[in-house]
């Protein structure tokens, strides 16, 4: 055996890549040497046969081919859908989370997320409420000051995402770095995470907004020029066409910089939306909300733009805006909320409740109840969506019932796509609310098991009671959207069934005409033959019809006997049904006489 090993080693050293007549790739010599080194001298092994050598050779060639065909993707940034799917420079196995104690969060490849934020801090107690407004620098300096002793509860509402603000809040409140990573990652699922000193809640805000055309201000001046009697008709038509092309270009173009004009900011504060700025995807914060199709969108920019332009709400100058909302509930009775652009829509009704003495939100001074108010306001913003989609589908239903066409199925498909995406974001809110209700305090089981979150994060029993109202609203919205989705699918089926029935009726009519004229065509061709000795041609036209009419009648009776029989059966049944209806509609004495007469 030792002689065989030495011979094999000598053969491998003299001829690289070969061992006992078997070919090996040069990169596999280490595995061969290790295999030879593990041969025990005490065991005898029989030499490999030619069949085994061929099998080993084919296996090695197959593995080498697979290694050449597949290669691990090193740069994962090429496969990211957009800048919201993962942080820039992200790689598999990277350190999770963002450390608020480090300037870059512990990720050198992460660019600084900077934006001008509108921050509102509200301190309140049963007897007093103070509201303050800050920008980024003033808010960071304000956090260094101690909280007033009279302030029982605090709410920090941040409109906009900026790393300096997130870092300051995370460092001051001791927020977990995984939660901070979820705040900056805009592709999170709806969930509630529990940490030792706080709870983190993330969900999607959906709201109905109005479309804003950037060329509206210029079109008004153009309209004024159109009324001028001096320009010619050709010039006015040219102006109108140029204005229409400019509007279409503004809707379909993709700018490379975000819209930070004052007019755009004011439009965003009023709840307006501009599709021209919705195509912007940069690392800076967005001044205008994103549309539903651009939120958690696929990697196809062409598809997203097409879905935005062809949205069924477009002719009504409306759209659905979506954004991610992050909420922290800390153990020191503080609630912190981060919005992208819609903080004012949620803040307005809650500030009204906090400004009124005697409300349950003001009297309780409970941060968990404040979180419930935030969830309730976010869910309530989706209520108008059911109304506008019900109105839209009602109009489409009238069109389908009066004049069905294949183009209506396209609009219905777009409605179903939008409803499906809204349900994707709204349905998980049920699980979120149930998770908060299950974490009610006092959590005796968690305290006995040593769960730190059970000691610090408090969800009061009053909050659990009012969370049921949020759950009811969410279920009502989801049920309404499910019903609208089912109605849209039924309308699509009705369109195709109606079109198919119309085509079948047309084919039936064509078949009937063909059956009637088939014998006539045959006899016409028979009498139209070019023969010299054809005495039947001299009998006149009556002879032709004497042959054609009986033949046509016989052909119709033979080929359409099932249809004719069914028609007579339906006619008899219809008369029977009409007679029964007349008898039922008649007065009771007369009906009784008719029944007795029919029995006799």
Report the major sheet: 9 strands, mixed
- Provide the helix percentage: 55-70%
How large a portion of the residues is in β-strands, by DSSP E? Answer: 5-15%
| Shape estimate | elongated
Q: Total number of helical segments?
A: 23
Instruction: Tell me the radius of gyration.
Output: 39 Å
Low-confidence stretches: 5-44, 216-231, 251-286, 443-450
* Helix/strand structural class: alpha+beta
Characterise the protein shown here:
The protein is α+β, with helices and mostly antiparallel strands. The protein is 56% helix and 11% strand. It is built from 23 helices and 11 strands. Strands 3, 4, 5, 6, 7, 8, 9, 10 and 11 form a 9-stranded mixed sheet that branches. A two-stranded antiparallel ribbon has the order 1-2. Strand 6 (191-194) and strand 7 (198-211) form a beta hairpin. Helix 16 (406-426) runs antiparallel to helix 20 (461-527).
